[in-house]
Amino acid sequence: MAKFILHVGDAKCGSTSIQGSLKQARASLLENGLVYETGSSGSNHIDLVRLVRPHSRGNLEESLVRGKEIVESLRATLKKDQTVLLSAENLLALPPEEFLPILRQISPEDPEIKVIAYVRAPTDMYLSYAQQALKGNRYFPKPESFHRPLDRFLSAWRDFPFVSEFWVRPFDRKRLAGGDVTEDFAGVLQELTGREIALPQTARNRSLSAEQMIVLQNLRRSVLPDHDGKLHPISGRYIRWFLQLNKVEMIGHKPALSGAACGAVAKINRGMVARLNALFPGVDMVLREGDATTWTCGADVADLLADSSPEIVSQLTSLMPHFSPELHQGMTAQARNALEALLSSDPERRRKQLRLTKQMLRDSDCVPAARVIRPKLLRVLAPD
């Protein structure tokens, strides 16, 4: 019997941290009989799912090639006493019978499948979904339509005939082992394998600030209106800049849902959460109910947010060449003032932020503006 452990997600529940840690620990996992092979697919097995559901915002043809590469590698190297460990957050919503042919390609024997899933209340994960959507679209899922049938997804995997063990863990730092999803996942692996499993800590995903979300939507609307549904180098460049700045120090407000938006998400998911908690008592999922204010169904991401600063939005915009083309000629007074206002008062953090901004301007072919920024200096207002 072929043995598999499937980490099926859910999205926005620490999958990136888990997968990065698993890839780093491949050698030690193999010593414990666990095979984690991703080929050239990065650190996860999303490309295996695309073999079943051929859809990708990136290059689908390349994704399918990578998926077949993983299957071939596992089929050629898998030994009888080993367990294949697969991790892909889009597995959760995939009916398990659709993924069974992929497992049979890896090994033709009947599989014994052990499943691990992490779940998060829709009111906690909705804003992350909206943020992710804006990276490739002008639009975001409306809170009144954001329904996650987690009860149905989980039940399908739990009841699949080849599943012998099924673990559902709440993605709540207060309830995770050590307050960390990677440590928690390692503990589950130990329970499933009877082996001592240690996984290295990895950096957590960084979030855009509320103001950066607003700027990103404005960019998708005004500069990239014909590229919805696609990642684009222009938006990608600014997203990297935002996230790198935030790694040093958050620029703007940490995003939080407005009470009305939170209430709209809670309303549509209330029944699902009740069913989920009845099916899986240990999860104890709790919805944040928000307030009684009626959601107005606005199309601006600013409508979702509890707090944001129009001034910071304006300052960020003044530093972005696609909003301020004068930067191609040199640093504007508005951009100088924005740098002075936005960046940290801590000298070392400020130097890092200046270096990142200088690189963003160079990448945007704004060399004259970039030359003005001297990361070793604490002030940027003085002209050349």
From TrEMBL:
Record InterPro entries: P-loop_NTPase
Origin superkingdom: Bacteria
Protein name from the UniProt record: Uncharacterized protein
Source organism: Pseudophaeobacter arcticus
